[in-house]
Specification:
Layout: E1 2-4, H1 11-24, H2 26-29, H3 33-37, H4 39-50, E2 62-68, E3 74-81, H5 87-93, E4 96-100, H6 109-123, E5 128-134, H7 138-146, E6 150-156, E7 163-170
Antiparallel strand pairs: 1-2, 2-3, 3-4, 5-7, 6-7
Length: 176
């Protein structure tokens, strides 16, 4: 298992990743639709976002990674926002967000993916990362807790409709 930055060599793997969402979790497939429609443009937009270029209103620089297995299948996607200097990010979304492809859920990949990205977050200057999950998303909350997440509180956000559990994770503990 390794984290890779989005690049064109994973075009076919990304199509399978997207199709898995479209078939098994269509509600969340929309987040990856840009890659299905125009993979080259999608990858460029992710790279631009990591460099703080052409950011949409309310966005901050954000590194994107894909968790790939030995067969070069994309198992999941994880994002590290360089800062949470907006009301939405500081309350609801946090520093790190991730998705595991539906066919690979409940196999420990979320835990692995988060563990692998914490040193990268630290390299970006994030000592403590805010990570959130829907209050009733026990799988995601377990991933966070198994990576040292310290529960903060449950909040009702302004953008997301469901109550949100907030956690803080020490990024230095994974690289120092």
């Amino acid at each position: 298992m390794k984290l890779v930055s989005p690049c064109r060599e994973y075009a076919l793997a990304f199509q399978r990743f997207y199709n898995d969402f479209a078939t098994n979790d269509p509600e969340n497939a929309q987040y990856y639709l840009g890659g299905k429609k125009n993979f080259e443009r999608y990858v460029k937009s992710l790279i631009d976002e990591s460099n703080g270029v052409n950011l949409r209103d309310g966005y901050v620089p954000c590194h994107h990674y894909w968790l790939v297995n030995i067969d070069d299948e994309i198992i999941g996607a994880i994002r590290v926002r360089h800062n949470i200097n907006t009301p939405f990010l500081s309350l609801e979304a946090g520093h790190i967000g991730y998705d595991v492809a539906p066919s690979f859920r409940r196999q420990g990949y979320g835990k692995t993916m988060l563990r692998l990205v914490l040193p990268k977050a630290y390299q970006l200057g994030i000592q403590r990362a805010l990570i959130t999950a829907d209050e009733d998303n026990i799988a995601s909350r377990t991933v966070i807790e198994r990576n040292g997440g310290q529960f903060d509180k449950i909040i009702q956000g302004k953008v997301f409709p469901n109550p949100i559990a907030r956690y803080w994770v020490d990024c230095c503990g994974y690289c120092c």
